[in-house]
Amino acid sequence: MEQAILEVKNLKKSYGDQLILKNIDLSIQEGEVLVLLVPSGCGKSTLLRCLNGLTPIQAGDIYFEGEKILGTEKNWQQIRPKIGMVFQSYDLFPNRTVLDN
């Protein structure tokens, strides 16, 4: 079996006492398409923000191309260009081109 391009093991995220993501396991192969279709407030955006390093996690591991992603900003800056994300509510910068945004 081919190695997953993105793998998540036992991911946990909470805000204070409110547990948002509990023991999330996920494995995505290169070229695979994944759809998260659940009701509002279930943690879809939180999960995506965790996978991009925009929101810190409390526990678990994230692997990209077989390498464990460490929680340092320098490490995330190297990985973010390879992981795409479109925000639900986004604002473009008027002084930038579409590609720059």
Mean pLDDT: 85
Q: Categorize the overall geometry.
A: globular
Helix content: 10-25%
Question: Roughly how many Å is the radius of gyration?
Answer: 15 Å
Listing every helix as H and every strand as E from the N terminus to the C terminus, the arrangement reads EEHEEH
Instruction: Give the strand tally.
Output: 4
- What percent of residues are in strands? 25-35%
Low-confidence stretches: none
Number of helices: 2
| Termini separation | 37 Å
The biggest sheet amounts to:
4 strands, antiparallel
Sheet with the most strands: spatial strand order: 2-1-3-4
The helix/strand class is: alpha+beta
Commentary on this structure:
With 101 residues, this protein is α+β, with helices and mostly antiparallel strands. It has 2 helices and 4 strands. It has a 4-stranded antiparallel β-sheet, with helices on one face. The longest helix is centred in the middle third of the chain and has 8 residues, at 44-51. The chain is globular and about 40 Å long.
